[in-house]
Amino acid sequence: MADLEERVQRLEAIEGIRRLKIRYAQLCDANYDPPGLTALFTEDAVWDGGDLGRYEGHDQIRGFWEGASKSFTFALHYMIGHTIDVDPPFTSGTGHWYIWEPATVNGRAVFLGATYDDVYQKVGGEWRFKQVNANLHFFTPYEDGWVKTPMMPMD
Amino acid sequence: MPSERTVEQRLQRLEDIAAVRQLKHTYAKLMDAGLCHENKAWPDDRFLALFADDAIWESNVHGRHEGREALRALFAGWAARITFAKHHTIAPSIDIAPSGAEASGHWYTWETITADGQPIWLAATYNDDFVKRDRRWLIKHVRSNIQFRSPYHQGWAAEAPLPQMGA
Q: How far A44 CA lies from chain B's nearest CA (Å)?
């Protein structure tokens, strides 16, 4: 069995990564705070949302958040059901999350359901996103539900 | 994590985070069990014992209520109107003070509620304070910012945004 120091380090790393993801959610809910969100990513990070686009590096990632802040006038990012894996020396990790997101997009109530596959890296003692893969499962007008309209256009 | 702290202190912090998380989820569990019970006797002493004597419960919709008896009256008012509730209390973000005797926490809640016979969605965030007294964590201050409280058949887009309290 690993020694006590290593066991505590593992739990601290998991807690640190959990906090990073929830901070991301809180900033998304604060009208996507583009500078605040961008600072949570490593310089060379990739945010990849499939049909939502792929954004690499701080400039592209900031541009993506600036666009989101215009069309999403309200959103709550409920980050749920995570699994986080870290191994010594606890400077990187991976995680899977569910998200349940009620939002108002261009004046319309919508439900967004997705999962995330993330890669994390510790930079200067702080956890950062190295890669975020967002897998959209439905993006549906509230009145329609996800059988009738699983994916509405984003803009 | 600065390594000047001993392993024992670092483990204590992780245990305190787990205890505060569990306290909030116990609050949700006992509230839902109480509100849903057909022979309602809620809030009972078991639920109120989760709070410090001088605890405050406030929200942008319900105002500010201080002390255990004021909390009892507030919750009894809910019990009179609410026949079903599920508080999905999600994504805790908890800070333990260096003293180890105080903590603060942020949560999200997604609630399905039946109030006055009508189904509603309620979405809110919490900015709460906690205190450790006699080695037990207690709720000191609940600040609930309700984002929307919407009839199921209507959704939230038609509603004006609710004013939000500062942290």
A: 24
